[in-house]
Amino acid sequence: PAPAGLPGEPDPEEAVSDDSSRHGGRVRGFPHERGNWATHVYLPYIAQEEFLELLELLVSRARTYVPSLAAMEEFHLSLSQCVVLRYHWIEPFVRSLRERLAAFHRFFCVADKVKVYTNQNKTRTFIGLEVSAGHFQLLELVSEVDGVLEEFDLPTFYKDPSFHISLAWCVGDLSGRLEGQCLQELQ
């Protein structure tokens, strides 16, 4: 058990207000609880000017099918699901990740196929660029990340992941509008 008085311990008099309008209408996959920290492991992608031009072109075209589509502002490639860490787990979790991933070297990755995704509970739809090269190396990274998640009794990554960089999102399951003709145009 954790010692009393850790930062983030809930105060019984404090009620948590979860207003989805404060974060673009997104719906939480699990309820907010003081002392819990939602996180995920990912590889950051720093967008260059050409990428941002492509993003603008794709989002502009896709908005003719789904006007509420919002372009991502930061880009990454996920290596884990969103998981919940207790405050006192953060440091050992990060330390374990560093130890397991220290031996990995850089590798080449290509994300070049437009694909439509929805999250697990179908509350958001995404347009992403699926990875076509580097998949094997990403699976090796995920295997190590999964090992750390298992140490903390947290859910591991998807069994057969579709590695991708999300480009844009909208609230709800609007995959039907984005697949088919729209997806062909985007590709």
From TrEMBL:
Residues 1-29 are annotated as: Disordered. It holds the Pfam family HVSL. It comes from the Eukaryota. InterPro entries: Cyclic_Pdiesterase, Usb1. GO terms for biological process: U6 snRNA 3'-end processing. GO terms for cellular component: nucleus. It catalyses: a 3'-end uridylyl-uridine-RNA = a 3'-end 2',3'-cyclophospho-uridine-RNA + uridine; a 3'-end uridylyl-adenosine-RNA = a 3'-end 2',3'-cyclophospho-uridine-RNA + adenosine. Gene3D superfamilies: Cyclic phosphodiesterase. Keywords: Hydrolase, Lyase, Nuclease, Nucleus. Coiled coil: none annotated. HAMAP family: USB1. 3'-5' RNA exonuclease that trims the 3' end of oligo(U) and oligo(A) tracts of the pre-U6 small nuclear RNA (snRNA) molecule, leading to the formation of a mature U6 snRNA 3' end-terminated with a 2',3'-cyclic phosphate. Participates in the U6 snRNA 3' end processing that prevents U6 snRNA degradation. In addition also removes uridines from the 3' end of U6atac snRNA and possibly the vault RNA VTRNA1-1. Interacts with PLRG1, CDC5L and PRPF19. PANTHER family: U6 SNRNA PHOSPHODIESTERASE 1. This is U6 snRNA phosphodiesterase 1. It comes from Chloropsis hardwickii. The lineage of its organism: Eukaryota, Metazoa, Chordata, Craniata, Vertebrata.
